[in-house]
Amino acid sequence: MIPFLILTFAVLLFMAPPRCLGQILPMSPALISLTDSIRSELHRPVCFGLFKDNYITIGTTLFEKPSQYNSDTKFQISVSFRLTKATLPWDSYLSLTYTQLAFWNVYQKSLPMRDINFNPGIAWTKPWYYHNRYIGTTSLILEHESNGRDGEASRSWNRISLSGNVYVTEDLRIFGKIWIPIVDSKYNRDLAEYKGLFYIGAELQAIDDRLTVGLTLEKRKGFRQFNTIAEISWRVHKKANMSLFAQFYNGCAEGLIDYQHHNTMFRAGIVFKPKFFSPRI
């Protein structure tokens, strides 16, 4: 019942008309400035940009003695290419997205890459405004994810996703994503049980937007079972897009190769964030 209520709330939030969402935020100069920046960005010529967070981290399993077998480097590269300006119907736009997530066993002999996940997609995105205030976005995404391997090591699936994010205040944002999984590999038929059907989360910015704290809960099989991601970052300089970064992960399916394995990891490093919003998964 609890997951059903959460999912229902998320769907209603994403599909609510902008008039309803517009009541959440008070008018402020900072928010008007953000609105102007987003509108200006979306009417610029098409270009590449960051999609999700781009980071490199190093860490180990919590509650166990660190070793070469439970410590690694995790890094993510994620970009988008906007195919159109915001000139499609309803001031929406179309973009190609690509994310690559890797787990690198740097402490083992020969430095093997344990898992590399490839995640291309195409997204249709609608920004929401109300009374000259930017409220958030809704995206419909067709995406594929696989590890590029064959045989019994092959992991692959597709999904049709609906994602969204909403500003509750200037500094607090809630976000979520629901999807229809299409699992096409016979070696991971039960992947959706570990990756679930939706996630929800929140992100808080403070201290002149230099500090960012986020929490994401991805529902997996089992009562009250979630994959949990907690993150914190500190921008090294107000005008620089580089932050010190720490990430905590507890759950299954952090990577595709051993998606059934449960682990609790803590890693730290640096991150480069997109200009406006970063999807978590």
Structural topology:
Blueprint: H1 2-15, H2 18-21, H3 29-42, E1 48-50, E2 54-61, E3 71-82, E4 93-104, E5 113-130, E6 133-146, E7 156-167, E8 172-182, H4 191-195, E9 198-206, E10 211-219, E11 226-235, E12 243-251, E13 263-272
Antiparallel strand pairs: 1-3, 2-3, 2-13, 3-4, 4-5, 5-6, 6-7, 7-8, 8-9, 9-10, 10-11, 11-12, 12-13
The average pLDDT value, as a whole number, equals: 87
The stretches of 5 or more residues where confidence is low (pLDDT under 50) are: 1-12, 14-24
Secondary-structure element string: HHHEEEEEEEEHEEEEE
Coarse morphology = globular
- Side by side, the strands of the main sheet go 2-3-4-5-6-7-8-9-10-11-12-13
Quote the distance from N terminus to C terminus: 24 Å
Task: Give a brief outline of the structure.
The chain has 281 residues and is mainly β.
Descriptive terms for the model:
281 residues, mainly beta, twelve-stranded antiparallel barrel, disordered N terminus
Describe what this molecule looks like in 3D.
- The radius of gyration is 19 Å and the shape is globular.
- Mean pLDDT is 87; it is low at 1-12 and 14-24.
- The chain has a twelve-stranded antiparallel beta barrel with strand order 2-3-4-5-6-7-8-9-10-11-12-13.
- It contains four helices and 13 strands.
- The chain has 281 residues and is mostly beta strands.
